[in-house]
Amino acid sequence: MNRKILIPIAVLAVAAVGVVAWQLQGPGSGGGARSSLQAPAAKKTSLPAFDVVRVEPSGTAVIAGRAVPGTTVNILDGDKLLGTTSADARGDWTFLPSDPLAPGARELRLEQVASDGTVTKGDSTVVLAVPEPDRDLAGRRGEGDSLAVLTGRDGSRVLQAPRSLSQGGAPRPAGEITIDTVDYDRGGKVSVGGQAKPGTEVMLYLQNNLTGRTKVGDDGRWSITPDRIFDDGQYSLRVDQVGPDSKVASRAEVNFSKVPIPDQALAGRAVVVVPGNNLWAIARRSYGEGIRYTVIFEANQAQIRDPDLIYPGQIFLVPDEQ
């Protein structure tokens, strides 16, 4: 990796650990996991403002926020114009860069332009670090997540954090197994999925009884749907990553509750929130688009008082695609 890129990314990653820890463990957090989708409502934010900055490992990005309704919004990458969009009648705007963002550290800024040509600059910036392909922010091999930190006069807030940081710990070793999804349908079929070292075998245990096994794909993803129906109740799941020597190289566990999906509900499937989840990631896996997190939010407003704060163990209904 280019040394000029590595140094600012590494410094930014270290600085963000404290910010993430404050968000996860600070006053009023209640042990929840920040979904990083909306700005806190404690103070009125000057417009234009960022709400979402999300970069996929491929470099494709979604940037969204708020501005005065009807104004033009310029998104700046340093002093370079990254792109332009418009705020709708509610003041919401979304921008999807046509090209993937290049690896490196950068600062994103905003300008809004009124119909009379008046330009208002945003009073906050997003410091963004995008890792090299197939590397994490520390330069190690493996799929890496970007880091986006919103900074302004009211302090700093993480908009996107690598999985290891969002879970409040040190980076996990490359290839270590994770459980990212636990979902089920109205008929009682349960699917479990996650990440592990490509080519290794994953064994799924229910209540310590082997209930399924699969091989991890070349993309590092695995998924198992046991050939059985799950009744409502409490369950413990464990997955073991087994190496060529048949020894367990890595292990992950999660407990979850299965509750009925109401017959009158539009949803045909439910998803259990596991550590590290956020609404954006759940929507991306469910619908292929993270921006559709609002569909899940609207279907579960009785449980989600704040879209920016969800808790492991919560069960959200996922409406069928329209």
From TrEMBL:
InterPro entries named among the record's database cross-references: Bact_Kbp, Ig-like_fold, LysM, LysM_dom_sf
Gene3D superfamilies for this protein: Immunoglobulins, LysM domain
One Pfam family cited in the UniProt record for this chain: LysM
Domain (LysM): residue spans on this chain: 269-318
Alphabetical list of PROSITE patterns matching this protein: LYSM
Protein name: LysM domain-containing protein
Source organism of this protein record: Niveispirillum lacus
